[in-house]
Amino acid sequence: MANVSDDLMMHKDNDPNAFGMFECFFCAASTQMFAVRMVDQDWGSPGVVWLRCMSCRRGFVLNDLYGLAPSTTPLDVPQGLDADTESTWNEVRSCLSARAFTASVMMCRKLLMHMAVEEGLPAKNEKDFAPTFVQCIDHLQAEGVITKRNRKWVDRIKDIGNEANHDLASIDKDQATTVATFTRQLLHEVYELPFLEANT
Ligand SMILES: [Zn+2]
Known about the structure:
The protein is an alpha+beta fold. The chain is built from five helices and six strands, in the order ββββββααααα. Helix 1 runs antiparallel to helix 2, helix 2 crosses helix 3 and helix 4 packs across helix 5.
């Protein structure tokens, strides 16, 4: 590349490829953003895209897999998580902010399985297999982490998770947010409450 700007391009205002929907960190709305300059590429392919919020006019940068920066990362991080659980939970949050909704539900299922093992379910069964998702849910219910009252949520996660496995286009933002909010609540029960009890 002869010049540092050779692989950059400026879109015209009427170019439909110049626009994408993102969550704006500043005006907190799902809003249209205009790609001010982008590497000659399709959306989602590796590279860098600089964006401008059409509502508040502030700027963002999209670095391929790292998502939008600054980003509206939803939900918070509970206290008392081990490093593995914390990084998995942060991956859920990153998936949500990057609109990777199917991936976020799959990560939530993984966390639920993690929590079942944390609550005493053997990581391998007698056949040396990892427990199934249903076995994990049953165990969390037997231990009282999942109560009768929130079993409905769990069935929903089961259904959404299955949809995610078998039908890639089916998870929307509301479903993914519901699952993540519920998972956050379970993280509170399994990790945060014992941590707070031990540290107060
Ligand atoms: Zn904005």
